[in-house]
Specification:
Length: about 450
């Protein structure tokens, strides 16, 4: 029996033996159980899906080690466990408070579930990630972001969280009453407990029109980086790193009802696209949100992918590094020197900007940021060798890797780039003194 098989088997026996709550919380055993991309098989077959807070509290009390699981979109072992996982797929409530301008969602709600509900009542969230299929707690626990020079990440719109801690106690923390402690608790990597409800700020609904340009020369970024990224509410640049140019630029602009936005034939020497495109140029754009300057609701334009289709390519890996926006152009050119290593294994790179926030573990903590993202072919042996090369090129910019994507950093790097990491660990100690919610990746990144 190899180590992986042993861990799987021993985890299953240990947990089943400790299961007084087994009859109430639904336990699922499926093999193989993988993340969304299929690059990771979870090291436990024990998945619990409680229907009530009381059932969740019992599951947590019954297990010495357990990890919360969202919609499984992380590419690394962040949500993995050798013992048990708990997914709140049955927690589907959505409660809009129009007076407070907030919506409170159960932890099983995805952005694509809540968006049309609040839009129908005249409200919107400030931004969305590239896909609407991810759960709200999974996204906010990892600092998930969209783009926009004035847009902070999705975690920044969290007004309150409710969670069950390691003792099984129900806790609530809010921006209004908990001050800086709340800044530590939102991007929590699932380490404070299992979030049951999340309250998000809402704002008046808005419309967006998406226009795509192709072949924008990188040279334009040297003096116009901020102008280009300020030209829309949310702007994304895609590249394959070859020929010193962006393959595509997606400009998502606010548009008033009845208004027709100008679409000049050239945008910083990029050419106006004449049909819908996929960020991976070889793929059919049928999965993508509408482009060609056609206005639509915020939630059908801010993500790149439609809710009812598979996002992106599926057979992929992802990596992302955050660097100060002030050094964006130098960082891009530094990565470009590795283009002949990168391109053969790449599906696409996306460049986005994220406004600074005060959330302790946010990749944009107190730093307006450029995020340099790689969607790789599922070729981990090769990609694993390229990541240290990219990390070396980006070292002068102290990159923060996306918590849910693949990197090869260990503890010392995280201590260097997150000034509030020690405070975060003290906060974790308060709600999980014995490390019930830790796993192998967390130990490597935060406790080694
Ligand atoms: C195709 C694709 C596109 C993506 N696009 C973007 C993008 O545009 N921007 C971006 O920033 N990221 C992006 N991501 C990454 C994605 O946003 C993160 O992986 C996010 O964490 C996924 O949420 P999830 O619900 O799948 O969480 P999971 O992967 O299931 O879990 C992630 C983390 O959240 C924790 N967690 C989940 N539920 C709870 C809970 N109830 N309580 C406490 N902790 C919990 C888990 O323990 C784990 O630590 C993308 C991923 C994919 C596959």
């Amino acid at each position: 029996m190899d180590k992986r098989q042993f861990l799987k088997t021993s985890g299953a026996f240990a947990t089943t033996a400790l299961l007084p709550g087994f009859s109430i919380a639904e336990q699922k055993k499926m093999t193989p159980r993988t993340n969304w991309s299929g690059n990771l098989t979870y090291h436990t077959d024990n998945l619990f899906e409680p229907s009530t807070v009381a059932e969740l509290q019992q599951v947590i009390k019954d297990h010495p080690s357990i990890r919360p699981l969202g919609t499984r979109h992380s590419f690394n072992g962040l949500a993995d466990s050798t013992h048990a996982q708990v997914a709140l797929t049955h927690f589907k409530d959505i409660k809009l408070d129009e007076a407070a301008k907030t919506v409170t969602v159960g932890a099983g709600v995805r952005y694509g579930d809540v968006a049309p509900v609040i839009d129908a009542k005249g409200f919107a969230l400030h931004n969305l990630a590239s896909l609407p299929h991810i759960s709200v707690p999974g996204a906010i626990a990892t600092g998930t972001h969209g783009s926009g020079i004035h847009n902070k990440n999705l975690s920044s719109s969290v007004a309150a969280i409710e969670f069950v801690d390691a003792n099984g106690s129900l806790q609530t923390l809010s921006r209004a009453k908990d001050g800086d402690k709340f800044n530590g608790a939102v991007v929590n990597l699932g380490l404070l407990g299992v979030m049951t409800n999340i309250t998000l700020d809402v704002e008046p609904t808005f419309q967006v029109a998406q226009t795509v340009y192709t072949d924008l020369p990188f040279a334009e970024l040297e003096h116009h980086f901020d102008d280009i990224f300020s030209a829309g509410y949310s702007v994304s640049i895609f590249t394959d790193w070859q020929h010193g140019r962006a393959t595509e630029l997606w400009l998502k602009r606010l548009v008033k009802p009845g208004e027709k936005l100008d679409t000049p034939a050239l945008f910083y020497n990029g050419k106006l696209a004449t049909k819908d495109l996929h960020p991976i140029p070889a793929l059919d754009p049928v999965n993508c949100t509408p482009q060609m300057n056609v206005p639509g609701p915020w939630y059908e334009r801010l993500p790149h992918f439609r809710m009812n289709f598979t996002p992106s390519s599926g057979e992929e890996l992802q990596t992302e590094y955050f660097v100060p926006r002030a050094h964006a152009y130098e960082a891009i050119r530094a990565v470009e020197t590795l283009k002949d290593h990168i391109t053969p294994h790449l599906l696409t790179t996306e460049l986005r900007v994220i406004a600074a926030d005060d959330l302790w573990l946010s990749m944009a903590y107190q730093q307006d940021s450029l995020a340099i993202h790689f969607t790789w072919k599922r070729q981990w042996p090769e990609v694993q060798k390229i990541l240290p090369l990219i990390q070396q090129k980006l070292a002068p910019f102290n990159p923060r890797p996306h918590w849910a994507k693949l990197s090869t950093y260990e503890g010392a790097h995280f201590r260097q780039v997150y000034p509030k990491l020690a405070d975060f660990k003290s906060l974790v100690q308060q709600y999980d003194p014995n490390g019930k919610f830790r796993n192998e990746l967390i130990t490597t990144e935060l406790y080694s």
